[in-house]
């Protein structure tokens, strides 16, 4: 029997950067809870962003934010992982030298910090992802419990991916989180590690866990779940790693599988 369902958001539940869920998911989350099935949203998004997206059911689920760097339930921090500030400073300085490349810093509790970003990017963060955004002159002077930083590049982010992975891959967990994002966290921050924390806390086994994803930052979850699903629109590597394939995000593939679990519970 499935006791835990965890799903990525952007590219899996939604089109990247969207903020409108199919409202049926809220009733499904509540109905699953009544059947003893826990629901978790596991995303590269900040806690604030995910919480706003799931506003009707925030007290009935678990939030795995910033790629597993923070796990929250009913406002209680179950787990968090901080970044190395010295390495963060090096990344910030590198990004400042790259044209059309911008950095977003995530702090504990869902706050997001940016510096010198174009209006289009800020609009995406505020109105698309619904982040709690603070524009500052210098991110490095802010006293922030940093849990993740992310590089945003509207086009061709793969052109810088290898450089940053080679330079920082031995110091931080560096993962592609979509076509426009490259994320940096401590090695203790991973969706799979976060999922294991939840399983341990709730005494839920791998065989009782179902997960959904579309990108490389979801692979950690696949290792922690017997029932791993890639949506049909997922990257080829993710589809190959998954045990099953669900319908694409635009066809509500995750919601359909959640309803199937509910019907079989």
Description:
The chain is of the alpha/beta class and 265 residues long. It folds into two domains: 4-80 and 189-264, Rossmann fold (3-Layer(aba) Sandwich), CATH 3.40.50.1000; 85-185, 2-Layer Sandwich (Hypothetical Protein, Haloacid Dehalogenase-like Hydrolase, Chain: A, domain 2). It is 32% helix and 25% strand. The strands form two sheets. An eight-stranded mixed beta sheet has the order 5-4-3-2-1-12-13-14, sandwiched between helices. The model has no long low-confidence stretch (mean pLDDT 95).
Arithmetic mean pLDDT: 95
Strand ordering within the main sheet: 5-4-3-2-1-12-13-14
* Poorly predicted spans: none
Work out the helix count: 9
Classify the helix fraction into a percent range.
25-40%
Q: How many domains make up the 3D coordinates?
A: 2
Question: Largest beta sheet, briefly?
Answer: 8 strands, mixed
What's this entry about, in short?
The chain is an alpha/beta fold and 265 residues long. The chain has helices at 24-34, 47-53, 85-95, 119-128, 158-168, 191-202, 219-223, 236-241, 253-264, and strands spanning 4-7, 38-42, 62-65, 70-73, 76-80, 102-107, 111-114, 132-135, 146-152, 173-176, 181-185, 209-213, 227-231, 244-246.
Which terms would index this structure?
265 residues; alpha/beta; Rossmann fold; Hypothetical Protein, Haloacid Dehalogenase-like Hydrolase, Chain: A, domain 2; 2 domains; eight-stranded mixed beta sheet; six-stranded mixed beta sheet; 9 helices
Summarize the SSE layout with pairings.
Layout: E1 4-7, H1 24-34, E2 38-42, H2 47-53, E3 62-65, E4 70-73, E5 76-80, H3 85-95, E6 102-107, E7 111-114, H4 119-128, E8 132-135, E9 146-152, H5 158-168, E10 173-176, E11 181-185, H6 191-202, E12 209-213, H7 219-223, E13 227-231, H8 236-241, E14 244-246, H9 253-264
Parallel strand pairs: 1-2, 1-12, 2-3, 7-8, 12-13, 13-14
Antiparallel strand pairs: 3-4, 4-5, 6-7, 6-9, 9-11, 10-11
Helix pairs in contact: 1-9
